[in-house]
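During the reporting period the student researcher (J.K.) took over the structure-prediction task from the postdoctoral fellow and processed the backlog of single-chain submissions. One of the processed entries is reproduced below for the supervisory committee.
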Amino acid sequence: MTDTALATGRTTALPEGHVEVCHLGGCAFKVGVRGHALVIDQPVEAGGGDRGPTPVEVLVVSLASCVAYYAGRFLERHHIDRQRLRVSADFTMADDRPARVAAVRMRIFLPEGLSEAMLQALRAVVDHCTVHSTLRQPPQVTIEFG
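J.K. obtained the following structure tokens:
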């Protein structure tokens, strides 16, 4: 997706593994990924317009939704209804520098009746979701200027 396409609101499919971020004004940015668009912003009290979640909130959303996806696939493989599956996440920021998320606490709400053995197996599965694994073994990040 080109900067022009992002700025005009058109969404075109981007290849997997690629995102585009374009300034919308103030603290807001439009993100394009695989034909989807979302707005990232800051809360009003932080100088933004609260038009969308913050980048940090999106990080936690990524982790919680990855856990939910892995849990859902586990339930599906074991022929357990996942209609009531829900993941709740709370996070706290570090008090020192650098600015970062210090802790994330997730709670997975499941259908009733899972045995202790099933819960242990599920924990092993969700503990290795892609986002969680990425946080444990951070990727190399390079920044270049265009």
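The committee noted the following: The first strand starts at residue 20 and ends at 25.
J.K. will present the remaining backlog at the next meeting.
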